[in-house]
Design brief:
InterPro entries: Seleno_YedE, Sulf_transp_TsuA/YedE. The protein is mainly α and about 375 residues long. Helices cover about 60% and strands about 0% of the residues. The chain contains 15 helices and two strands.
Length: about 375
């Protein structure tokens, strides 16, 4: 264990974490998760929102144990290695709204950065447009960072304040296992899809263990799909980006072995072929992730470390999933909805305003 931890803390750490995600995500698909969606933080948070009744899209409702596993794995790792540090107070309302619009952008594309790479490794060429948009969005965020953008400093919190998200994860796990029914008719507010992507799932205990392992490894290695691109261009440091390359290679190889690699644009699982909006959706998501300080997976991991600001962003994404489906903003395999462009314009205006007005010019 000490030897592996030493590797995770080295420059090899992101590579090891990337390989783990690249192998385990297709294995979860093989065991029942939706295609090219072994682990998608945005999609899985969307499913959790549906299970809690925040939206009523019946095909995407399930308390995904992978998310709880990632959070608890990061929390346990942080506690063991002395990196549990409760802090919060850095522009919480702005972070919340960034989370909302990040989710709307991700659901226009139908995936978070993790799923973008996993879709590409599964042969879904539509992901190329999404990943291009992600890079552009991160690039816009880097422009603001160069200008001195900051959401302000977080403040040290009480020891117990950082326990709220791990506690919430345990509650959600309990609801998943017990599957209680409430009300006179014995329905809801915990909903489980009977068809569609929400009904496709690996055994929950395996999904939980996989999520816990990834959460631990990503916490130790600082694995982040957005921070890796940011550091590559801002600091000329590619060691985090090596983890992305490792993820792609490992996922591609695993998909080949499992017979899951199916190249093409048409007929890809939970995907659409509108190239422009695959690109634009991830421009907005990438910008929001960069302004908030990390990809959705990294935000969950930081919330496990006691970061209340990251927790606010995660909760914003969950609420954003409810907004996206209740207001018909989320895409489907048929493409985007008529309301998505207006929501995208509003979200981009908000993100750009945050970038401009929360930055100071550095001479």
């Amino acid at each position: 264990m000490k030897g592996l931890d030493k590797i995770l803390l080295s420059r090899m750490g992101p590579i090891i974490a990337g390989i783990a995600v690249g192998i385990l995500a297709p294995l979860l698909v093989h065991l029942g998760n939706p295609g090219n969606m072994g682990i998608c933080v945005a999609c899985f948070e969307r499913d959790i929102a549906g299970a809690l009744g925040f939206h009523r899209a019946a095909v995407v409702q399930y308390l995904r144990p992978e998310i709880m596993g990632i959070l608890l794995g990061a929390f346990i790792s942080a506690m063991i290695f002395g990196e549990y540090r409760p802090r919060s107070g850095s522009s919480p309302v702005v972070r919340f709204l960034l989370g909302v619009f990040a989710m709307i952008g991700a659901l226009i594309f139908l995936g978070c950065p993790w799923r973008g790479y996993l879709r590409l490794a599964g042969g879904d060429w539509n992901a190329l447009y999404g990943l291009a948009g992600l890079f552009v969005g991160i690039g816009i965020g880097i422009f603001f960072l160069w200008r001195g953008f900051s959401l302000g400093r977080a403040h040290v919190g009480e020891k117990g304040s950082g326990l709220m998200m791990p506690f919430l994860a345990i509650v959600l796990l309990a609801l998943l296992v017990m599957a209680p029914k409430f009300g006179a008719e014995g329905t809801g507010p915990i909903f489980f899809s009977e068809g569609g992507p929400g009904s496709m799932k690996a055994p929950w205990i395996i999904a939980l263990i996989v999520g816990g392992l990834i959460g631990w490894m990503a916490q130790r290695s600082r694995f982040c799909t957005v921070g890796s691109v940011r550091d590559l261009f801002m600091l000329k440091d590619g060691h985090l980006f090596n983890g992305i390359i490792a993820l792609l290679v490992a996922a591609l190889a695993t998909n080949f072995v499992l017979g899951l690699f199916k190249p093409g644009f048409v007929g890809q699982p939970v995907a659409h072929t509108d190239s422009l909006w695959n690109f634009l959706g991830m421009v907005m998501a990438g910008l929001a992730f960069t302004l908030a300080g990390g990809c959705p997976g990294r935000q969950i991991i930081m919330s496990g470390e006691g970061d209340g600001d990251a927790a606010v962003f995660v909760l914003g994404m969950i609420v954003g999933a409810g907004v996206a489906h209740n207001f018909s903003l989320a895409s489907s395999p048929k493409g985007i909805t008529p309301f998505a462009p207006a929501a995208w314009a509003l979200g981009m205006a908000f993100c750009l305003a945050v970038g401009f007005f929360m930055a100071r010019k550095i001479d």
